[in-house]
Queue: 3 jobs
Job 1
Amino acid sequence: MCGIFCAVARHGCHVVPSSTVKQRLLARGPDASKEILFTVGGASGNDVVSLTLFSTVLSLRGPVTTEQPFQQHGSSDSALCWNGEAWNIRRQRLDENDNDTAAVHELLCLALCPLGQSETRLQESAVASACTVSRTLAQISGPYAFVYYHKHTSRLFFGRDFLGRRSLLWKVGQHGELLLSSIGDGSLDGSWTEVEADGIYCIDLNSASDAAALPTADETSAISIDPRVFKVPYTVSHASDDTTSVGLLDSAFGVFVLISR
Amino acid sequence: MRQSLLPRTRGIPLDQPADQSVHRNARIAVLFSGGLDCTLLARLCHDLLPLEATIDLLNVAFQNPRAHKNAGDGAYELCPDRITGRASHAELLKVCPGRNWRFVAIDIPYTEYQDHRAQVIDLISPHNTEMDLSIASALYFAARGRGQAASLESGEVIPYTTQARALLSGLGADELFAGYTRHATAFRRQGFKGLLDELSLDVGRLGKRNLGRDDRVISHWAREARFPFLDEAVVQWALNCPISDKCDFGAVEASIDSIDENTCATIESGKKVLRCLAWRLGMKGVAQEKKRAVSLLYI
């Protein structure tokens, strides 16, 4: 099992995991660990955002360990922290020696920047991008918690699979920074809570406005922990031929609706 | 289920490859209480993995200072999960000969439990109830994988720590196929409507109640829990399956041909479809196993 950590700070400094969190993340993934720092924005009066991504890896597929946060060779356009197992993508089983982290990263990159159409997609709203990420991940069967940063659009996506098979916690740190981690500091720090396994979460690092002000706010919901974060809930509208995830809808009525066919 | 287990049991690397005989190191272990769900997983793995692959069965027993005051070291063998674990291990040996089923007896003295209690509380946070703690403690020590197992050469029982990085868990079977006592209660009170309501509530809150917490304690030992019953296709099948095909609360007779009408009366109603599968795979003992009111809780 891998360990993932992410910090979004607006006070000019990159925030790293506390020593307890770091030690526990390393216990989860003793085979590799890496930290990647991004600095975003600063133009047109927006805050400078310092983004930290840190991952540890437990190697479970084939003979080679794939480092995380995963970036395409020679490119820093995006980065993926993946605590998951993609058993199948579009109903195709991944070869047992193929790395699923690389496959999921490629899938997300292509979905957000399809070849030849990058210009149009880059102008998509944050909500539309989050829907794209949600649709893309619905093609995967397997457990996951993830954090994905798309540098072109300065958008950060995160979430857990619809059953919540992997842990992901969040909290707001001492100086207002948003922190995400597989594991928290422990029972004495009560401020970590679980990210609900109910949708894809997104934060636009280049946007000064609150997510509540988004024009399509009725399809999404702003999140109380940080008003800049919004969520695209897992819903039936993501159904397609390639979808393999099962959506739990209408649970208030005790009815399950399947989004796959 | 086989399609679910295939990717979850293949291609797992070993910590220490090729020392003496590779096949003696298990790549996969089962979190093994000896109950229906985990035993069924072990039985299905037998059909999928090469015969020379060892499968470790991790079975935890806690010392209970009150109940076991005078029992000495034999106390662990009196724990409910140890008794069912031994029985199901014996049945696996009988039904699946030729495989090394390594039963790892993980005995936790009360003092050791106390030494680790604060750490478990920290790991499960923000979960914080006594119930969370007792379930997570069992998973914590099971995932550590350190206990006693019989040596392959001499049969002598020696200290052993599993090398398996992937641990199979039967979690989800109770929620999908109505295995909890309260499911029977819901049916008795409100019929199928009550049972369906209870089941949908259970599946919907798995992530919130169990899975995040279990991930945090199990992964601490650099191992990964895998949940074959929570495979997308299995969940989809189970949710699509009419409730009367999954369990037979209220039914007079079983309708599955392979079951002897005389003995099936002793098979419980909850998780009937899994019990029938176990029966068909030759595991008649575990198919008939009685539901225990409490499991894992001897703390």
Job 2
Amino acid sequence: MDSRIYEEKTHHYGKIWTWTAVLVFVLVPVSVCIFYNAWPPFMSVFKGLLGVAPIFWTVGFIEVITFTPMLGTGSSYLAFVTGNLTNLKVPCAINAMEINDVKSGTEEGEIVSTIAVATSSIVTTLIITAGTLLLGTLTPFLNSPVLKPAFDNILPALFGALGVVYISKNLKLAVTPMLFMIILFVSVPSLAGSVGILVPVGAVISILMARLLYKKNMI
Amino acid sequence: MDFNPNSSFLYLVAVAVILFILAQSVFFLIRAYRRGKEIGMDVKKLRKTITSSAIFTVAPAVSILLGVLTLSKFLGLPLPWIRLSVIGAITYELPAATSTASALGIPISETITDPTVYSAITWVMTLGILPSTILVPILLKRIQGGLISIKNKDSKWGELLISAMFMGMISAFMGMVFANIRNGLPGWIPIFVMFFSAALMAVCGLLIKVLKVKWLQDYALPICMLGAMAFAVIITPVIS
């Protein structure tokens, strides 16, 4: 099969799966309302949405723009249904492409990224399922104060290892966005809760710096 | 009808959603694997990608499970199970539940007993996160078209652009680690953990490149993550 046809078919299947997923997601509240005959007042849903939608719809739009070029076609359709992008799917796909020495945007990159995201989605689903079913047994372990620091520090543990690989490869590219973000977060610590919005800010700074260095033949 | 957020009906709904998610993942996995074989990619590498991605996923997935645990005290188990297996994340689901509960004047410290409150929260959780899923089939081709035209004009710049975007993500998350340094030494714990993880990765890099420990390449990231998490367990009681 020609790679363009494969790509087109990936879009075709991706769209079918995504729209079906949207239907499945919406059927969850619909089935709850029908089964319990409990349709909520419009205003309570609206007020609830007002508290989260402006920020999360914006973040959602930004994530699509930022992450789909890194992920590729198949993994984008999958990752935006199975979620946990920044803390799991994107690092997993990037790491897999790095290990296999393939680049996003190539067919090999597309395949490796899709395999990584699909495997990660399956393993996550199985772990959450097993954990949910065994929650009685696991709760003391998961809530153990000894282990709390481990889970509190999962993002530094992930981005330390991932960061050193990419920063060492793109040192000139990394300096400006890194310094900007460190100064920003030290000055305004409360922004830690809105890191999703700051990802594209970092990306824009990084792209502008990359363009400048590229134009001056420095990278 | 009596309402129980852990009812068999809600578990059935959860199982249906989970099966759908698994089916979609398996479909894309098999399709990509077959295509890889078809274009002559090394099957051993494809299998290693599956193994290393699975191992890498374990620690973050357990952390997601902690989110299910947090939400289950208020919402029962089936709904958090559904929400955290699909596009939702604890950083979104908790504010969504809290926002709806406060709009209805309900405390989130007790398990929900009113089905109308439960259905309102389910709607908010669903509608609040749906755009990112919907936007992919609408925007993906256009975004890729833009990237292809950039790459066609200047392939080196096209590659740099992707690297720069990824650097943006890394810089935001690494910068966030510094958010609490003004809280004294305990605020530095995430930074120590991050540097420990980076140092472990540097050691792995040396072992791979200098001592040619090839198998380590596939497992370096999960090893560094787990090592740094263990380091956090050791240093936190000492520093705090």
Job 3
Amino acid sequence: MITLKKEDLEKIIAHAEKQFPEEACGLIAGVADGENKEVKKVYLLTNIDRSREHFSLDPKEQLQAIKDMRANGLLPLGNWHSHPESPSRPSDEDKRLAYDSSASYMILSLMDRGNPVINSFHIEKNISSREELVII
Amino acid sequence: MTVIVAGKKKEYEEGLTVKQLIEKENVENPLYVTVTLNDEFVQSANLETTVLKDGDEVEFLYFMGGGR
């Protein structure tokens, strides 16, 4: 299970709306106790692909985020990205490019603009499974 | 010499290259990892020739991307 604060979800949605129709992306960091994770901070990064169909995190911003996590005693828990025009589930490319089976991959769908949907997934060897996501 | 890898101090022999460090650290999927040395990005072509020095700070950044 992974928990995400409502205010952090709102930050993610606001950033994704701002980047729409391009995909938006970022990192999530927090604490973990076994399989239970708590997101303490979300990072809003630049999608250097500037695409409505792809995303790649800006490596320079990724480096700064990793250092910030370390300085604040947080663990990297995974990443998030938006699907401006498709559902909240990993695409074939999302699965192919997921290299960390322990990470949480959050996907925010803006397909229904008035009703953004976010889910979290684990991806291992091209197979995704939904992770329980609790908004607190 | 002491090399700081992902924020942790590690002891390695002098003359170690970045490529050798990747191997010693058992970095998974190294083709999808970007390496920074003292906050500077190391080009893939230079991994074999870049020799680490005492006190160097190294980070391994996994490529993160996808698509719809």
